[in-house]
Amino acid sequence: MSFRPPVRDDLAELPGYHSPQLDVDVRLNTNESPEPPPAGFQQAVADRVAALDWHRYPDRGVRELRSRLAAHHGGDHAAIGVDNVFVANGSNEVLQTILLAWGGPGRSILTFEPTYAMHGQIARVTGTGVIEVERQHDFTIDADQALDTIAREQPIVTFLCSPNNPTGMVEPRELVEAVLETVRPFGLLVVDEAYAQFSTWSALSMFDEDAPLIVTRTFSKTWAMAAARLGYLVAPEWINERLNTAILPYHLDAVSQIAGETALEFEDEMAARVARLVEQRGIIQARLGELGVEFWPSQSNFVLFRPSTNSGSTDGNAVWQQLVDRGILVRNCSTWPRLDGCLRITVGSADENAAFLDALAAILD
Ligand SMILES: Cc1ncc(COP(=O)(O)O)c(C=O)c1O
Prior knowledge:
By secondary structure, the chain is α/β, with parallel strands linked by helices.
């Protein structure tokens, strides 16, 4: 066998990010939208793609999409302008770009666990240290402990996720404000708002050119465009200037730019889709309650729950497998740290949710 150069020592032991994609009828495991974007969107994208100059590089500055996003968020905060918006291939790439610029050896980020696993994963891949603070038993953050730890450890980036994946819970505004004030002398606060439109408030209302606050968003969930890989952030200009140093030239292809620009013309349809999912979320939570299943009240498009059988025993893994056997895939969190026995269901269509709830009731009976 020829010589195989070893990877970086710190990557050698690092497990990858895994989310099984099984071929089943009902896929409720990755928090996608159960509905595609409207037909009008698909036709408009197809028309514009047909007229594309394929031999030319895309707009390197992503100017049109960024200015449309700034206008879109004008209602959240009047001061948000085109230079406050940075767009990349999914919010994962947005997060990665932040850590390419601010992470690295000798630096650390701070997360509140359990939370979105990619925050820690991207940090480790970029050679950045990870400080994990435990959430309380009910998955809320203990504000005093949080502020003390941040002040003591002085991470370069503190991550909040609101609504938080996988718990679905929203961080209170007072906590986000207090964390921002605490990091101000030494670091950045990133609020990951991948699921913001499902919740009641957004940290975008705290935007300030002088505040070290970054809010990240995605087109993958509420905009029903996971296939396009499009995400963005809103931050002060002095932050975005640095991100543009770290990102590759022409990183965002022309088709993705067209898809994002066009999506914003279908905002009302997005809001109606979100309203339908919020209604379905209520139905799921009500039925879980009737079944006596422990769950965490969600302000997102998924619900974390811990099934237990009538005899009282909890084996999330066994319930997950029995759901798969019935053609229903949910996220199996049962062996994740701090989530013993838990599963997470993405809110699907009315039919998909009913199929899940009926199957769960039969399994637990
Ligand atoms: C909290 C959170 N942030 C970011 C992402 C990544 O989304 P994207 O598809 O934009 O990369 C996800 C995806 O599940 C998520 O749950």
